[in-house]
Amino acid sequence: MPSCGMVNGFAFWFVADFSGLPNSDINPKKAPLLFTGPDNPRTHWEQTLIYFTDPIEVEQRQTIKGSVKLSHCQRNNRFIDVRLELR
To answer: Is this prediction's pTM over 0.85?
Structure first.
């Protein structure tokens, strides 16, 4: 196994919990969950890939730390802006 390699980006997916919908008659204990992960049944939401402008070199078993910020896109309210910062 190589001791180092390149990381070109990250994959993202989510779980949506519909128990907190306003004005909903759904019983929170029976509310549906939507799983979009690669190990779950396929949905039209799928996953998202975020590629780095420049790949980063990592060592074997190295932990990558950072943060992800999601916000509504001002140009199109159906889009989401994603900001990824690595430390």
So the answer is: no
Q: Are 39 and 29 in contact (CB under 8 A)?
A: no
3-state per-residue secondary structure call for the chain: CCCEEEEEEEEECCEEEHHHCCCCCCCHHHCCEEECCCCCCCCCCCCEEEEEEEEEEEECCCCCCEEEEEEECCCCCCCEEEEEEEC
The bridge status of strand 80-86 relative to strand 66-72 is antiparallel
CA 85 to CA 56: how far, in whole Å?
13
- The closest of 16, 20, 21, 18 to 40, measured between CA atoms, is 16
pLDDT of 39 strictly over 70: yes
CA–CA dist 29, 27 (Å, integer)? 5
